[in-house]
Amino acid sequence: MVKENKVQTVSVPIEVAQEYVSKLLGFAPLQLSDDLYNVIITHLGQMIDEFGEKLLDKFSSKFTTEKIQSLTYYLKEKLEDRLIDMFDSFDIFLVSKVLYLNPSVVLKDDELQLSYSEKYDKAIDDRIITYTNRISVLKSCLTETEQEAAKINSIIHNLKNMKNNVKQTLENVYGVKSVDELCASVYERNNSISRLYTALNNINLSNVNFLSICPPPKKKRKHKNK
After folding, report:
1. How far apart (Å, rounded) are the C-alpha atoms in residues 196 and 9?
2. 130-142: per-residue pLDDT in tens?
3. Within a 10 A sphere around the Cβ of 41, how many other Cβ atoms?
4. Long-range residue pairs from 51-60, CB within 8 A, at least 24 positions apart, any chain
5. For residues 14 and 90, is the Cβ–Cβ distance under 8 A?
6. Which ranges of the sequence are coiled-coil (predicted)?
7. Helix, strand, coil proportions of the chain in percent (round to 5)?
8. Residue 9 pLDDT greater than 80, yes or no
């Protein structure tokens, strides 16, 4: 049984195929084709417009302006379609036959280096070592950063738990929902005590009217049995 070797072919866009020759020539072959197309299509359009004006001058009594304009538009459209087909073939011919480089051609920038410099080679090795050390330092810093981030996340978690515990204690013990509310309650209580203390200090104990504020309790009379 004979096995046939199948050769895999890869199609390359024409824009990619012209890159190497463009580097050598200093301009893109397809750009040259586009410039030619633009010049030709512009002159053809002007010629058709002049042709339409001549028809309008000579046959204005037989044809309306709209019909002549429709005719010129039709001619432009057909010529443009035909010109596009022609230049598609011209592009392939230009790139593959005229402005074409043999695959064996190598530009100067792509030639292999034939000279060897020990000093240059050592400089490259030193740079590789330098960047390798920098990468190691960056990896170490990254590890330390991740560890510190884990510690911070743990602290944040503990703070959240402490906050929940404090909130629950405030509600269960003091009947308030926040520290601010507790502080306001303590502040109000201290103010009340301070006002009471001030009022007591301002009372004149020698004033007979003070006794009327807190009269002594009355003694109960005992009934004698007759």
Report:
1. 104
2. 999 999 988 888 8
3. 16
4. 51/75
5. no
6. 142-172
7. 75, 0, 25
8. no
The torsion angles phi and psi of 2, rounded to 5 degrees, stand at: -100, 130
How far CA 36 is from CA of 29, 32, 39, 43, 89, in Å, comes to 11, 6, 5, 11, 14
Task: Residue 98: name the closest of 33, 16, 36 by CA.
Answer: 33
Mean predicted lDDT score pLDDT of the chain: 78
pLDDT at 106 over 80: no
Higher model confidence: residue 136 or residue 174?
136
Q: How far apart are CA 211 and CA 175, in angstroms?
A: 39
- Are the beta carbons of 48 and 76 closer than 8 angstroms? yes
Q: What is the pTM of this model?
A: 0.39
Q: Do 10 and 56 touch, CB atoms closer than 8 A?
A: no
User: For residue 146, what is the enclosing H or E element?
Assistant: helix 118-169
Residue tagged 């750009």 (tokens) = 31
